[in-house]
Design brief:
With about 170 residues, the chain is an all-alpha fold. The chain has helices spanning about 15-55, 70-85, 90-100, 100-110, 115-120, 130-140, 145-150, 155-170.
Length: about 170
């Protein structure tokens, strides 16, 4: 039996060529992409500096609100959509007049809103201030209250007339 000697086999020339080509391709890609990455980083730094400068040059309407990417109109519309019940006529002008930060603070603290005009209008309805017991004693069901309104045996004259016409014509529609 012949003894085998362990010999290291060399990779085929084609494999060596492919490995060298791949390494050269990766190295070339890194060399050419470095300036692009540096330029992108400097552009990002410039835009960040511009947004900080824009934030410091806010209009009086946006004073105190950390908005960087929206215009004054966009910020007001966004706040009205998110913090209120949608946009109503005159809302944008009111927010522009009082300032967005003050309007947001008012929305978050409704107790600070003056309700005297609404209270004056509601004073004409004394039942709103009555308790349930007072309502039952002052407005009993026998005086034409809810028990009489929902009595299924009572039929209005309009309903009786419709039934009579329907029965006379013979249709069930």
């Amino acid at each position: 039996m012949l003894g085998r000697t362990s010999r290291r086999t060399r990779p085929a020339p084609r494999t060596q060529f492919l490995t060298a080509s791949l390494a050269l391709l990766v190295l070339t890609a890194l060399i050419f992409s470095a300036p692009i990455l540096v330029a992108a980083k400097s552009r990002a730094d410039d835009s960040r500096a511009n947004s900080v400068a824009a934030a410091t040059k806010q209009t009086p309407v946006l004073a105190g609100v950390p908005i960087t990417d929206l215009t004054e109109q966009q910020a007001i519309l966004h706040a009205l959509d998110r913090l209120g019940y949608g946009l109503r006529p005159g809302d944008v002008a009111r927010v522009e007049q009082m300032g967005l930060a003050k309007w947001i603070d008012q929305q978050l603290h409704p107790e600070s809103i003056d309700d005297s005009a609404l209270d004056a209008r509601l004073n004409q309805f004394p039942t709103l201030a009555m308790s349930s017991a007072e309502l039952v004693t002052d407005f009993p069901a026998s005086a034409g209250g809810p028990a009489r309104w929902h009595d299924p045996r009572r039929v209005s004259t309009a309903t009786a007339g419709r039934r009579a016409r329907r029965d006379a014509s013979g249709s069930r529609a």
